[in-house]
## 1
Amino acid sequence: MSAGVSSVRTFVSLTAAAVVAAAWLGPLPELALERFAAQAALHVVLVSIAGPLLAACIAGSHLDPVRRWPQGFSPLGLSLLQAGVVWAWHMPGAQLAARAEPSLLWVQQVTLLLAGLLLWVSVLGGDRATRYERVGAGVIALLTTSVSMTLLGGLSLIGRSPYFGAEMAVSFDDQTLGALLILAGAVVIYTIAGVLLLVRLLEPGGAVVRAAPPGITTAGGRS
């Protein structure tokens, strides 16, 4: 690993640690016991900010699980897993139970972070020779997650939605802010990441083309 790559990885690692520390050691966990907006903010920080930062630290390193078990880290499969975890924890009963029991709140936070981390590692990780082959699946996985988050945020905005109980927010403003955090936070991040991967995939003479094995004809000729 070059000194430049090592420096970037170190910086990203420190940033990821700072984000997780700010999320878990700051005021959000305590506020999340009462306010829906704080709970939504905590989820967005862990899944959409800490997740990709931690994955960027792991991807391509000796800790990268995708390099060892590429078949077990399908971006599409892990996108569905994350959606299942997020939607399960956002059910009114699950959210209220997490608020009533602080230890369950921590189980919620850890499982959300792990689900997000697994998805981002599946998209960013893998050996250099095969990593670009995963880009297409990664694009679909991230955009699918964006759609899922959009639907979740939209349902949270609807006061009479069966997926959002009136007792989950202390006020209409609390409900609205929480829903907007889901929409403006998670959705924007996943959509931007998916679009950037798509540009990378379609870029003429880009990394995807250069990654083709010797003897394979690409758009630029034989590699």
## 2
Amino acid sequence: MADTEGSKDTKDYFLDVPARHDGFFLKGAHQLDWGMRNRLARIFRPASGRTVMLAIDHGYFLGPTSGLERIDQTILPLLQYADALMCTRGILRSTIPASFGNGVVMRSSGGPSTLKELSNERIAVDIDDAVRMNVSAMAVQVFIGGEFETQSVHNMTQLVDMGLRCGVPTLGVTAVGKNLTRDARYLGLATRICAELGAQVVKTYYCTEGFETVTAGCPVPIVMAGGTKLPELEALTMAYNAVTQGAAGVDMGRNIFQSDAPAAMIQAVGKVVHELLKPKQAYDCYLTLKSEQAKAGK
């Protein structure tokens, strides 16, 4: 108990200053609980309202992926440049240092491998384990138009309910099947469904026409998925187009860890996302960093 002797009389009530009520910097998050907003602030930089998320969860259905064979060797050096990391709980526990202080988005659905129907996923993580590991959000795949569409949507709503009880946001990840088109109409449908049913953040692909309508029609932040490996300038251009058309950042994996210079690439992506550096300038930055790292033997 505090010592009461020698305590001063209270006087600094600032009667002429209205009580401060700060808003929250992310779209659709101003009415969430404090804990959930605190977790979102670990994923998204408050200064820019955007994130560079490093996706390394591919192994949950692909197995060892090129660039992710030894995460301790290829990914750990990149963590210092990532605002958030998207990974499975197995990798988080076995490989990621507990000293990593930025956001962790934990893959929380799974089941089939590439040998089976991918939309047949189930919830793969209990909320107690997500809280135990202090993750910033849980990610769940949603297959709008897929064979198991309703099941995947139900997976998401179950995670949303569990997350709301514990203050853990849910990231709805829109999956595009082989027979579905990545156009604004489909992406707008998939992202809006995720948001309407409670996801606090949605991850989706970029489309060259009408992407601004996808982000405008979604009442929560959209993070752009990196997708398949592109040449560095193309990947930087896609990231620039996405954030200037309303995305709250990117979640890139192969376009970073499969780059010729992953550390240079993730830093260049950060310049695009947080500083809105033009693609050509960001590419020049990438080349400079790549050269410097090569000289340093990194």
## 3
Amino acid sequence: MDQVARALAILAACSDMVVIDLTAATITSPHALARTLAAPAAELDQAGRCLLLRGVPPQVRAELDRAAVPAIALADDAPLA
């Protein structure tokens, strides 16, 4: 998770939108993922930018909601178009 946090911090500083596709990811700790995404998502949100998560399993969505992570979370079956 440390590498993810470092990469997101860099991207959040210079991007209008960061897209993370979790479709093929194995997430062993939804809580740790939400904690890792919280700061970069807040930085993007405060600047009027966006963190978009695709392929978000229900347990991860619940943890993102619980942690109030300001990100757009699309489920596995959500169409992109």
## 4
Amino acid sequence: MKEFPSPRESVLSLFKNMARMFDGEAFPHVDALYQFVFTDIENGFPVHIRFAKGSAEYGEGLNERPSVVITTTSDVWLDIAGRFRSPGWALLTRKVRVKGDMRLLRLLPRLLTRTIKLPRPQRAPGSKDRPFKALVFIGNPRKKNGLTGFFLSPFVEGMKKAGAEVEEVHLYDKKINHCLGCFACWTRTPGVCVHKDDQKELLEKMEGADLIVYATGYGSMNGWAARLISQDVADKVGRCWGLGSGTTKDPGPYEGELRNMWKPTQQQNLWFHGGNLHQSRHYSLYLALQLKARFEGLDTSVYKLAPSYHQG
């Protein structure tokens, strides 16, 4: 298992990316040197970064003539860089102290706006070189005007910015008939349904996708898994939500954390995301980090996979 980087290594990695993200074309005349001192590393770890003549350079140590000096701890600044914390909060609580021109601190986010192209994921030998394909099924009849579209939009835009090819399919516009239970797709025409609807088109799209997102809207997540995938998968995963508190709608045993939400489930590569606005904003980041780690091949430890006590 890979070891986590030290605070010192994390800070240097951050400054390396800050230098790469400097938009020198938009700010060719900026000449400013930012001196940082991280008080929690080696009794004060100094790092500086200079933006001048359309380029950026960073290095360790104290500079004699900084434009602004920012004193903080590594965890606070990494949280601000990752948008876990607000710079305003850090200043008000004195987690970040600034000596010099405060306007330069407000300018910093604007300087770091150059898009970094991510490398394409490695494909299996012999496969065509193509962008990562994501297929998004939207089940809300209100389309982009509903809450489902509201929650989904930042996720889709993030995938596009990362270089993915995203196709959105509004199921409300498609003709999809209910299963007759005739088993013709098992016996007479294996893999082919007797219905002449839009199912064939959707199945072809699914076969060519690297990622499939079911934006189902509100409802029983376990029920959606049964309808969209299979009852076997729904039974394997078990209930979503609830802690096992032993009440009418939340049967025991007590599990200590929410069932199957924003974490690995008993069905490999099946993840659940949902909740209200606050939960979606907060926990979507942790889910995304887990997916990104797996996508990049990083070893991620899981305390344990929660057992499935309940079906449906």
